[in-house]
Design brief:
single chain, 154 residues, mainly beta, 2 domains, five-stranded antiparallel sheet, three-stranded antiparallel sheet, 13 strands, elongated
Length: 154
């Protein structure tokens, strides 16, 4: 989000745009903010998080699954963090592994980015995936593919 300085337009001049923009106003800072101008909030980097929780693997049977790899279809201007988690039963707390930096310019899949493969080899019935950036980073996730293997009944 960037801010717009209307004082530079002077009296009688008008701010004109050919395409509509989403604007937000802050009574605290007395500023009008232009949304989606960059990845900051008035110059401060924002945290952007996308999480998919409790994704059932391998259908609805009583089996457990071990994830062997994650192949994100991701465009990013730098590295962002990916974190995996599992649950044994729906409604249980998610057990999250460590967060690992993933750069699509360097890594093709998550196993390449893992410093600790134990974070990839978690077992459960439901998987959770978190993508997160905390810097002025532009990224788009189109989807992902998962590789997993059955580990028997729980």
């Amino acid at each position: 989000m960037g801010s717009i300085d209307f004082s530079s337009y002077g009296s009688g001049n008008r701010y004109r745009r050919t395409e509509p923009d989403l604007l937000m106003a802050s009574p605290v800072t007395q500023k009008i903010y232009l949304c989606d101008a960059d990845e900051t909030a008035d110059g401060v980097a924002m945290t952007a998080t996308l999480t998919r929780e409790s994704l059932p693997l391998g259908g609805t049977g009583p089996g457990q699954w071990q994830l062997s790899d994650l192949w994100p279809e991701l465009e990013a201007s730098g590295p962002l963090a990916i974190q995996l988690g599992f649950q044994k039963k729906l409604g249980d707390a998610i057990t999250w592994g460590s967060s690992h930096p993933f750069n699509p310019a360097v890594h093709a899949h998550f196993a390449e980015a893992c410093q600790n493969l134990a974070d990839l080899a978690m077992t459960g019935r439901f998987i959770s995936i978190r993508f997160e950036s905390t810097t002025n980073l532009s990224w788009t996730l189109q989807g992902y593919a998962l590789e997993f293997e059955p580990q028997g009944k729980y």
